Amino acid sequence: MSAPVSFAPWQRRIYDQAASSLDAGRLGHGLLFCGPAQLGKRAVAERLAQRVLCQQRGADGEPCGTCRSCHLIAAGTHPDYQVVSFVMNKEGTRLRTEIVIEQIRRLSEQMALTPQYGGAQVVIIDPADAINTAACNALLKTLEEPVPGRYLWLVSAHPARLPATIRSRCQRLEFRLPPQAEASAWLNAQGHADAAAREALDAARGHPGLAHEWLKGEGLKLRREVAADLAKLGRGEASASEVAQRWCGDEDAALRLRHAADLALADAASLTDPVRARSLAAWFDQANRTRDLLRTTVRSDLAVIELLLAWRAGEAGRAQGGTRK
Ligand SMILES: [Zn+2]
User: Fold this and answer.
1) What class of enzyme is it (predicted)?
2) Contacts of 205 (CB under 8 A, 6+ apart)
3) Using one digit for the tens of pLDDT, what is the confidence trace for 70-124?
């Protein structure tokens, strides 16, 4: 009997495709699971690993969930299965933000050994785009010398950040945003009411994983607050510094800027005035650049004030001349 697995339809499509390649003996040694974050790439890779390693697969080819291999995978102790991700720094004070060469060397050594269960060996690296340059070179060697039954799978939301030499040695499994009807139906199945699901999906530009997260948490409420702040700012009812202080006051600053950029874009699409539409597009870019600055050491609140002042100037210009549809 198969272990229960509840894939979204877009996950199911990729899984079925990879599973049939595996069963036909055509599955690549190196795979690159890529596509937007929060579409469940890692879960598909993990399930596929279980399918590779299970010792008594069902008639449908699915892993049994009860054999020794399946148990060890579930416990995270299967000797022929590794997931490489961020580890603690040397001081043990925080997680590293890179995957470093020692980790890649260890997995290469492991992959050179005979699998302990006599079957295959699977290594998943997630997020693969966090592998630093030195580690990439070491990884490339492993990818260049494929051994039958040894699988090295990379998971990445930003595959363009990987060196072309690595990408070219991997078979690509590309996750895409699903059609809107499928995304809505999935959100409904997660327990979200129709109207809220539609609003969230709209705000997330069709990304069901993001919409789901925003519906579970504060994401949509935050978006409404950002819209209200921008409107007040435009009418001169709030100052840029006061709004900036609120936006930068907690860990949601990046999400607020993302919403602000999206709202500007949506606004631009509803305008007939080409001058204001262009200025909104420029503001969209500025908002995204400001969001990138949040990750650096720059005084991000100053950049946010500048952004908000630009918003107010643009809105003042619109009040004088622009017309709306
Ligand atoms: Zn099994």
Assistant:
1) transferase
2) 262
3) 999 999 999 999 999 999 888 888 888 899 999 999 999 988 888 888 789 999 9
- 112 C-alpha to center of ligand 1: Å? 24
Per the structure, the complete domain to which residue 297 belongs is given by 225-321
Q: Which residue has the tokens 């470093």?
A: 100
**In-domain check, residue 186:** yes
Spatial CA neighbour of 283 closest among 310, 258, 263, 244 = 310
208 shares a domain with 77:
no
Distances (CA, A) of 226 to 15, 132, 243, 315: 38, 36, 9, 15
Q: Please tell me the distance from the alpha carbon of residue 31 to that of residue 162, in angstroms, as a whole number.
A: 13
Kindly state the average pLDDT of the residues 36-41. Answer: 95
Same-domain pairing of 82 and 111: yes
The pLDDT, as a whole number, for residue 1 is 38
What spacing in Å lies between the alpha carbon of 50 and ligand 1's midpoint? 7
Q: What is the reported pLDDT for 2?
A: 43
Contacts of 82 by beta carbon, 8 Å cutoff, 6+ apart: 107, 110, 122, 123, 124
Q: Is the pLDDT of residue 319 over 90?
A: no
pLDDT for residue 325: 41
pLDDT for 275 equals: 86
Q: How far is the CA of 190 from the centre of ligand 1 (A)?
A: 28
Reply yes or no: is the peptide bond before residue 127 cis, omega within 30 of 0.
Answer: yes
Q: Tens digits of per-residue pLDDT, 220-275?
A: 899 999 999 999 999 999 999 999 999 998 889 999 999 999 999 888 888 888 88
> Residue 198 domain-assigned?
yes
How far does residue 81's CA lie from ligand 1's centre (Å)?
14
| Domain-located, residue 267 | yes
In a domain, 4, yes or no: no
Do 79 and 133 fall within a single domain? yes
Distance 65 CA to ligand 1 centre (A): 5
Q: Ligand 1 center to residue 3 CA distance, Å?
A: 9
Amino acid identity, position 224: R
